[in-house]
Each structure stands twice: as structure tokens, then as C-alpha cells.
Design goal:
Pfam families: Asp
CATH class of the largest domain: Mainly Beta
Helix content: 10-25%
Number of strands: 14
Number of domains: 2
CATH architecture of the largest domain: Beta Barrel
Order of helices and strands: EEEEEHEHEHEEEEEHEE
Number of helices: 4
InterPro entries: Aspartic_peptidase_A1 (IPR001461), Pepsin-like_dom (IPR034164), PEPTIDASE_A1 (IPR033121), Peptidase_aspartic_dom_sf (IPR021109)
Radius of gyration: 21 Å
Structural class: alpha+beta
Largest sheet: 6 strands, mixed
GO molecular function, one term: aspartic-type endopeptidase activity
Strand order of the largest sheet: 1-6-2-5-4-3
Distance between the termini: 46 Å
Family: Belongs to the peptidase A1 family.
Protein name: Peptidase A1 domain-containing protein
Length: 253
């Protein structure tokens, strides 16, 4: 069976919808039917003992049964890999998915918030078995992709396992050391706007699953004032801060 998955950098779990989920799940392909797989192992079989049965994304939740099976991701083939077979998505999660994929692949850093309850992310499983050239992955997003073009089959981006594609970028990468476990967090002490600087938390989290920049309200208000020269205003409908179009004249961020 083939599944289309969203990727999430803040959790480790891979999950797919079960045939038993029915209308409770939002998916684009077909749900997983265990009887159609000759390599499927139910929860009674030896699998990752720390795989959770419930996963929460913000305020959205999925629940199911930890199982294992063999599957492929591109040219990489995995055997006896653990995943969550989901039989329940709450209304928030159905709205998040909204037929944008069948499930989610977690790409969180392996250490985990609780070292005593770690479980392998899919990427860690791939890397430690030497199935890719380098223990790294890269994400490229197509700036020209739209909802219409992706519906028509055009890829909105690429996830590259084991390295990079030099045809997709110019220049050199800047490397940052990770400052914590689980989340992809790096050190950050300030945000500079022209000649002005605003102190921020010592750590920031990189998240490919969001298009926004999230900061505490005090820091955001200071940045808006520096950028626009006026007090920060919030749009009541979206809950987002409004910036005038002239901010580009006030310096680079």
C-alpha cells in the first residue's frame, strides 16, 4: 500500500490510519489494512516498548496501537519498523490533516525528552543501520508551489535522506550545534533589525511544520515597533500582529 505523509520535526512517531478508523480519520489514499500485509506484526509481537499509543500535536490528538511492519521510503527499505496504527483522530487533528496526507512522519532529534522512554524515529532507524550515505536529511521547499499546483501533482518540495542536492541551492551551509534533546534547538540570544537588537530566549526551535515565527508577546511588540516605528497591533480575526508594508525601509532582520 502507498501512503502520503506530512513530516513533523517536533515528534518522533510515524503513524498511519487504520481501516478501523473509518470517518474519524482524514486521509488521501487508503487506510492501512493489516490483513493485506504478510510482514505485519500486531502489538503482541516484540516491538519498540516505548512507542506511545497517543500522540498530541498542539491541541490535536491521534490514538492507536503500536505495531510493526516493513515499508519503503523512497529507495530506502525498512524491515520490522515500529509505527502507530491510528484508529482515532480528534476533530482538531482531522482539521489539521484535512486530506493533506495519510499520516505524519516524525523527524525529531533522537535523544527524547525522557531518555528512559526513547523510541527510534524513522530517520534514526534508517541512519543507525547504515541505509543512507550520511546521518543527515535536508528539506527543500519550492517557493513557486501553490495549492493548485500541488493538487495537480507538482511537488511542493523535497526531503533528501542522507545528504543534499547541490542543484537546489547556492553558497555554503552554516552549521549550528544542537543545544538540547528531542527538539531541533539551537542557541540564539538576540534578533537584530538594522542597528537595533532585541534579546530573545537562549534557545530557539527549528520547525519545518510551521510557516510562522513564534516569539513571546513582549519580544514581538518590541520588534514590531522597531520595524514599523509604531505600536504593535493585532488583527482580531487571525490573532496575528499587523505590520505596515513600509517596514522594509527600516532595516534587515
Amino acid at each position: 500500500m502507498c501512503f502520503g505523509h506530512q513530516q513533523q520535526m517536533n515528534l518522533q512517531v510515524l503513524w498511519v490510519p487504520s481501516i478501523t478508523c473509518g470517518a474519524s480519520c482524514s486521509y488521501t489514499s487508503k487506510p492501512f489494512t493489516s490483513t493485506n500485509s504478510s510482514t505485519y506484526f500486531p502489538s503482541s509481537a516484540p516491538i519498540d516498548p516505548n512507542m506511545p499509543s497517543t500522540v498530541t500535536y498542539g491541541t490535536g490528538t491521534v490514538a492507536g496501537t503500536p505495531v510493526s511492519d516493513s515499508f519503503s521510503w523512497g529507495s530506502v527499505k525498512l524491515h520490522n519498523a515500529s509505527f502507530l496504527l491510528v484508529n482515532y483522530e480528534d476533530s482538531v487533528m482531522r482539521s489539521i490533516m484535512n486530506r493533506r496526507g495519510d499520516g505524519i512522519i516524525g523527524l525529531a532529534y533522537q535523544s527524547g525528552l525522557d531518555p528512559s522512554a526513547q523510541h527510534d524515529s524513522v530517520f534514526h532507524y534508517i541512519a543507525i543501520r547504515g541505509l543512507i550515505a550520511q546521518p543527515s536529511f535536508s528539506i527543500w521547499l519550492d517557493a513557486n508551489a501553490t495549492a493548485t499546483t500541488t493538487t495537480q501533482g507538482q511537488a511542493a518540495g523535497v526531503i533528501i535522506l542522507g545528504g543534499t542536492d547541490t542543484t537546489l541551492y547556492n553558497g555554503e551551509f552554516t552549521l549550528f550545534a544542537l543545544t538540547g534533546s528531542y527538539f531541533w534547538t539551537i542557541a540564539a540570544t538576540a534578533v537584530s533589525v538594522g542597528n537595533s537588537s532585541v534579546s530573545v530566549s537562549p534557545n530557539v526551535m527549528l520547525d519545518s511544520g510551521s510557516m510562522g515565527i513564534s516569539l513571546d508577546s513582549g519580544t514581538i511588540q518590541l520588534l514590531v515597533e522597531i520595524l514599523s516605528g509604531a505600536a504593535a497591533q493585532i488583527d482580531a480575526g487571525s490573532g496575528l500582529y499587523i505590520l505596515p508594508s513600509r517596514i522594509c525601509t527600516n532595516g534587515d532582520v
